[in-house]
Amino acid sequence: MADQSIIRITKELSDIQRTSDLSLAVACRDIDVRNVKALIIGPHDTPYEFGFFEFAIRFNKEYPRKSPSVNGITTNGGRCRFNPNIYASGKVCLSILGTWRGERGEEWSAAQGLESILISIQSLMSGNPYENEPGFEEANEASDKKNQKDYVQKIRHESLRVSVIQRMEEYLGLTPEGAAIAQQSAADQDQVDIDAEDLDDAAVPFEPFKDLCKRRFLWYYDNYLLAIQKAKKEVKDHQAFVRMPFEGSNNSMEGKFNYTELERRLRNIKLALDNEVVKWAKEGQIAHDKEMTVSVNLRHQHEQVVQAFKNQGIPHDVQLEDNNPFVWVITYFGRPMTNLDGGLFRIKIFFSTRFPEEQPRVKFCTRIFHHRIAEDGTACYFPNQLRKDDVRTHIEAVFAALEEEDPAYDPRTLVNPEAHKLYWGGADERKNYNRRLRRSVQQSMDDF
Predict the structure, then answer these.
(1) What pLDDT shows up at residue 284?
(2) Where in the numbering of this chain does the UBC core domain appear (predicted)?
(3) Does pTM surpass 0.90?
(4) What is the strand order of the sheet 317-320 is part of?
(5) What average pLDDT does range 405-418 have in this prediction?
(6) Residue 28 catalytic?
């Protein structure tokens, strides 16, 4: 009989991976479903905003009768306590995990699962985490008010420094100074004669969120810069963090503010990501010349998309830049009778030779003022999770994001702070947004 515990875990993983929740991600090695990695993206309007917080989850053989164990990984090597309930050691204090005494009815039950655990952890990442500490829930003395402010300030700094900047530098092979650490290129790897069967899966680094974090960094880059600009007005560089009453010597968040340094490192990361797609194009041309499978697949998909658009009378044009199947250029014609009517936009889709494991990056080359398009042209869109290898679903999702007339409010799509604020403001702000969108549409003909 199949292991019912394994079946339950597999289903829960699949459910989360198929969901449209933009703030949770889970993954495991195929050979070890009981050891799961999870990523929680910090909630908007909190000091954790758009940070990347990773957790290791170990399911025992008695799951779901017994809760899994959860350990925080994003701790700066055990030196950073991000929350009263998330220790520097990685311990997560939650009643449903049995790591903290809770009220009756808050303990673990088989009706709960992985998603409820992650949502519970995410709920700890509040706008005022100071009150998460037992005994401080209703602390309202003047000293508490000051501590609350000081606590938020240092969490915001370390969320940027540790969960975003350090993580991205590791992914990109950058030193804090911005120098590149020598890495093997995809073209070089292709020359190495290694029998895949001789590789030990356990010896290969498991980084399931690398591509996701890169794409989300591009989404939230302007928000990171705004957070730094705001914080610079509140604290001075080299000002020491304030220790909280509940922090101990080995379980605290110590350090000094240095937003000038964080901004420099943040910009280096953005530059490296922009250069990465240039590298993709070069690697793609090599793959095309060698007629590698991924190249043949992308060229075939391009032909299918062109034919489908022609058959359906869709006016948009789709070309390959310099005949390179790893760089698609779309000419988008604004939909009639909408704010996009009369617009003409050039959109590029960049593909890695590791597609679909690495998802494409979509960028508007023609400027547009839109709440789902970042200032640098990065598009915020949601492809079908079950068909991420189908390029047409990516294109359709980009068009849907651009043309959606009455979307539900979702702060996790905050990629253009200025446009987002106007779009979701009052009636006057929305009118201003529409005017600026129309102005960019009219300008697109000249900019194209």
Answers:
(1) 98
(2) 4-164, 296-446
(3) yes
(4) 317-320, 327-333, 344-350, 361-364
(5) 94
(6) no
